[in-house]
Design brief:
alpha/beta, 2 domains, six-stranded mixed β-sheet, 19 strands, about 20% strand, elongated
């Protein structure tokens, strides 16, 4: 679907609030529907009058005027996109008014995003596709003096959507296809043509760097681990750098602390953090952001073999800290430990965000609505929260008291890789904090938000790509010079 500025289209979309009484057109139809309560203008509600003898009009409800948000617009226009597809509409138009308290450029971006989101489906392995996008052109009839700004916004949202769809495609791939090497290949294929420098380390280089924690997790698999570094140098005049670190477990059986069989079917999704940072890098590069960003992924599989690490092992790390392995299914934090330390010490990032499907405890605490967060720097956390709010991807900060840190202190090693059943999301995050060298850092636990068993709003069943928009907004607006605290 192409989002165009101007007038045109087979079908006209009329935007209606619950309190709307008068329309410029189709008043008789609207009165009829309203009187019989067929159409109540609830947010995202649609009524289509499309037929050979119809008016070729769709009524789109926006709910109560004072409750309109960018997120409600995204959802409403996602529903509209599905409706257009249902009727095999090839072109449509909507007049976009100025809504009170909403930025006009962002309003149009939200509308465009909702429409574009409606076209996504991962149907690569189906014999026959079920989702068949039909809309070739959608026209936004915008205010004359806002056209230039809106055009900028439409280009930007197209770039963001490409990153989201890439993330979803990577995450939705089954583990038989998406091995660590395949993930590295896809990252190169997608990012190198856009000017992102992609470097991949194999097992020999990983060992040379002393990434003992990462290597311990990878030992159970016949597939070689890959350490993927992706650099966007958008501001050569600045030395400031933001690091995005994504968990890259392309499959997680739990190792010797094996998962129950019903819990394994979707464990190819355990690399969602890596998919998100790769997707974010695509959006960042396509938009040519004037920032320096490095994305890092330690990709491997957590399987069982004669060489696999075991509960009771004490392993090392690139940071020199030793770790008591109490549970081999707490493996993501072990791979991230070396990746975070690399970001802090080799890449010398000024700020670091890691994104990971880290704990089932986060799903219990926050469900699939909020992403959990832990930080060592409140100023940076505020930036992440601002970026997430703009994205419509809510984040909830969890506490990080010293009493929680005590739960991961080791007895025979420096640290334990689990702190017990209580506060599992917090202790997992604070384990990661041990490897960021006091650099301002935020951990995002997307265990609940990265994958949905059933779609909701504009988020599809399966991989959601949640956090791509947050990371993009953060990179765009990030002030990397805040004091380390």
């Amino acid at each position: 679907m192409k989002i165009l500025i101007g007038k045109g289209g087979q079908v006209e979309v009329l935007l209606i609030f619950k309190e709307t009484e008068q329309l410029d057109k189709s008043q008789e139809l609207y009165d009829y529907l309203k009187e019989r309560e067929i159409f109540k203008a609830a947010s995202g509600e649609v009524y289509s009058d499309i037929s050979p003898k119809g008016n070729n009009i769709i009524l789109l409800g926006l709910g109560e005027k004072e409750k309109l948000t960018l997120e409600s617009l995204r959802k409403a226009f996602y529903t509209l996109g599905k409706e257009l597809m249902k009727y095999k509409v090839e072109s449509a138009e909507v007049e976009v008014p100025k809504f009170e308290n909403l930025c006009y450029k962002e309003t149009n971006m939200a509308i465009a995003e909702g429409l574009l989101q409606s076209e996504y489906a991962f149907e690569k392995y189906l014999s026959e596709q079920k989702t068949k996008p039909t809309v070739k052109e959608f026209f936004l009839n915008v205010l004359e003096d806002k056209k230039d700004k809106v055009e900028e916004g439409i280009e930007e949202i197209n770039n963001i959507i490409e990153g989201i769809f890439l993330a979803r495609d990577l995450i939705n791939e089954p583990a038989i296809v998406m091995t660590p090497k395949e993930l590295a290949i896809r990252a190169k294929e997608e990012l190198s043509p856009l000017g992102v420098e992609v470097e991949v380390f194999g097992e020999e280089k990983i060992e040379e760097l002393g990434m003992k924690s990462f290597l311990a997790v990878s030992k159970g698999s016949a597939n070689e681990p890959q350490f993927i570094i992706m650099k966007w140098n958008g501001n050569k005049a600045s030395k400031e750098k933001l690091a995005l670190v994504g968990k890259g477990l392309t499959y997680d059986s739990g190792g010797y602390s094996i998962k129950p069989s019903e819990g394994m079917a979707t464990m190819y999704v355990d690399m969602a953090g890596s998919g998100v940072v790769i997707g974010a890098m695509k959006s960042i590069a396509k938009s040519k952001l004037n920032k320096n960003v490095v994305a890092i992924v330690a990709a491997c599989e957590n399987l069982i073999s004669g060489e696999a690490y075991k509960p009771g092992d004490i392993i090392g790390s690139m940071a020199g800290k030793t770790i008591e392995v109490l549970n081999t299914d707490a493996e993501g934090r072990l791979t991230l430990a070396d990746a975070l330390y690399y970001a802090a010490t080799i890449e010398k990032a000024d700020k670091i965000v890691d994104v990971a499907t880290l704990t089932g405890a986060c799903i219990i605490a926050l469900g699939s609505i909020y992403t959990g967060a832990i930080t060592n720097n409140e100023e940076f956390m505020s930036e992440v929260e601002k970026a997430s709010k703009k994205a419509g991807e809510p984040v909830w900060q969890l506490p990080s008291n010293d009493e929680y840190r005590d739960l991961i202190k080791g007895t025979t090693g420096d640290l334990k890789n689990v702190g017990g059943r209580q506060a599992g999301t917090i202790t997992a995050g604070l384990f990661l904090e041990e490897f960021v060298n006091d650099i301002p850092w935020v951990h995002l636990d997307i265990a609940g938000t990265s994958y949905l068993p059933a779609g909701t709003g504009y988020l599809p069943k399966g991989a959601t790509g949640v956090s791509v928009k947050t990371l993009y907004n953060l990179a765009k607006d990030c002030n990397c010079s805040c004091e380390h605290k």
